Amino acid sequence: MNIDLTRRTLLRLAGVSSFAAAAAAAARAEGNAAGGGPTFASRTPMRVGMVTMRVRQLDPIADFYRDVLGLTVMERSGTAALLGSGGVKLLALEAHPDAATESRSAAGLFHTAFLMPTRKDLARWLVHAAINRVPFSGFADHRVSESVYLDDPEGNGIEVYADRDPSLWQWSAGTVTMATDQLNIDDLLTLTDTRASDFATAPDGLRIGHVHLRVGDIAQAENFYHGTVGLDPTRRRNGASFLSSGHYHHHLGMNVWQSAGAGRRDERATGLAWFSLEVEKQDLLAAQQERLRKAGAQLATVENGLEAVDPWGTRVRLVKV
Hints:
Order of helices and strands: HHHEHEEEEHEEEEEHEHEEEEHEEE
Number of domains: 1
Organism: Bradyrhizobium lablabi
InterPro entries: Glyas_Bleomycin-R_OHBP_Dase, Glyas_Fos-R_dOase_dom, TAT_signal, VOC_core
CATH superfamily: 2,3-Dihydroxybiphenyl 1,2-Dioxygenase, domain 1
CATH class: Alpha Beta
CATH topology: 2,3-Dihydroxybiphenyl 1,2-Dioxygenase, domain 1
Pfam families: Glyoxalase
GO molecular function: dioxygenase activity
Keywords: Dioxygenase, Oxidoreductase, Signal
CATH architecture: Roll
């Protein structure tokens, strides 16, 4: 497979005729946002740890994340699967065969963003996915990162991406510059062999760089995730808000593009069960707990931390690492 054939394959798998159209599709999927990076993102005082999802068909979904993303199956039973990379737990799947499918207009998961350690890793994965005829939903250059979008077999959104060096990010008055431009596929593919895949498993440094949520109201979401959880705003536009820890471009995205006015989530439906934010310092965790308690948030104790429930029923675990 040469580069030209790979380009045609990528376009066909994305269902578009040009990479400009693919960037437009990514804009619809991401709302002019950005991605995340493992090295910098994982050194911040808070960072994303795990995502846990309720799925109807456990085996096909677990196989998808193993075969397409290259995650390692660390534990598996008839009712659950745990997958990760480099011995680090990243994704848990819970089987709920009779669950209703969560509506895209409900609050919940917009996408899970898997962060490649390097740009070359992203290129290697892209060739692997294309050779295996994985359907894509968009490609984009977000200026701080380069991203590819797709869905798992039950419609859960996925972003796979690599960060540019943080020294290249542009900040002004606490706001980071991000866009949804056309991804330079030719330049990306110069980093790897396009004739065959050498991507058997995900690199050890793969992490979840950020989680993007559907919420019912941006101001209410910011009050919870900024005001009580303590993430810092980095960008707000077009019905979306982005927050981070430690001057990262964002660990958390939130939007109301399809879910404005959404009410409480149905915990019996498919989709996001909970995600975790890893907290480095005990005093930070204690301050979070106190703010959440004063705000009247629903709280529960979990191993090494606590679980809080946002205004729409999405559960976030704050855990000491």
